[in-house]
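Note to self: user wants both folds in one dump. Writing first protein now.
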Amino acid sequence: MRIISLVPSATEIVVSLGLQSNLVGVSHECDFPKSIIKLPKVTFSNIKKKKTSSDINENIKEILKKSLSIYEVNAVKLKELKPDVIITQSQCSYCAVSINDVRKCLHKWLSKKPTLIDLKGNNLKQVLQDIKNVGIKVGKKERAQQIIKNFKNEIRNIKTLLNKHKKEKKVLCVEWLEPFMVSGNWIPDLLKILNSQSVNSISGEHTVFSNPKDIKVDTIDMIIFMPCGYDINTTFSEIKKNNFEFKKIFKNKKKYIVDGNRFFNRPGTSIIESLNILSEILYPEIFKPKFKNKWWIKI
């Protein structure tokens, strides 16, 4: 079976299912595990390399204004690789090639068309269902079920440890710096498991624009920065160098940076680590800081 993954979360799922050797192509954004980086890239971005989140946002607006795609598929390379299965997504048009872009490429194929798997998880339940669906379609149903079972066991273990902590914590998770955007989708679900509430966002709903001035700062326990596509160093550097309005507003609040690109922006099997990272940040008195200064930092 020859598999092409057009989204990082799909690549992680395929590898977790034990099918890394079946991968013949990936997207330009796929970067984990490191062993897949040399695989042929079948997508590319029309976003210019910019220095700040504001620059990137403006570039995306320019692209959309011209009715162009943010990301594109290399149709020639896709066909050359002769995939049996292509995994893409319809969850976010800003994050990766959309399923409609892929369908346009396949429409011209005269030979047998590959199986197309669409990842569309917007909340935690749907993300787990995506893992199960991929497992079923690539003949790894039992392995997918085991991954889901392991995650649910981890949830139970965490809830047992938090049994005495009934006071709800309010957490503001930031998915973009300029303009200021608050994380949605599966992030509120992860926080709910940890007896916490995601401020200004709802489970299953996309990231929303927010004005930091409108946020009731006094009710927030902490802020966690997890910009889409950013690692810890990139986020830290941009916050440090720029005079963002929110820096003054949240000056006296606990603030943390996590590796958004690796653990919080891609709905795949690494969602287990996402939960563990949040556990350490929210409850340092209970969970040992195994991932501190590697996958999260305090600022």
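First done. Writing the second protein, which came from a different request thread.
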Amino acid sequence: MGQSKDDIVFCITKISDYFDIVGSSIFVLTNNTAKIILESSSKDPNDIYVRLRIGGKSFYVRRELYINERTLMHDIVESTHEQRLALVDGCDPSTGEYYMERNSRIADFIIDFFYTGSLHKPQNICIEKFKEELAYWKISQKHAFFPSLRLSTWKFLEDPQSSIPAAMFAILSVFFVFASVFGLILGSMPEFQEDPSNASAYHFMHVKTNE
């Protein structure tokens, strides 16, 4: 099943034209041998998508959503391939994904912020870790819902060492807990329970008064 060199070149050219259209591979003819050089289309700064892998999770993001505000995402999508390598932790040439060693749980909320314009903090992530991620992505805390009030409230309720009022609140909380437990203990003791005989007399008097 021999084929001429012209036939091989014609076939390779057709295949090359196809892959050039889909933007996933480029075929090169060297010494009559077809070699495949994988190059992701995400390396083209004019591509509408950029492929990211954040904390092991893949994201395909549209460039047009990230060009309005100067964030790290803006810098990534507006940069060339070489410039992006300086902003991320590396690039996987087989998939064209730029990978970043960050928290993937927070990344979901970061990506959602760019799509919706509304920033929410995950409930299972502490506020300091969330602020660290916002600083990494260059996202202003003004987008968070009452960020200063939420932080102050969290410190007041959860961190007694943050201020004197927070310490007093913690002491009062412990006091009321012990008072409640002590009250339950006293209520279970016969000496402090209501005499059942008095209860019948009370009901009798109450009925007579109503009549």
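Dump finished. Worth passing along: The two ends are 116 Å apart (CA to CA).
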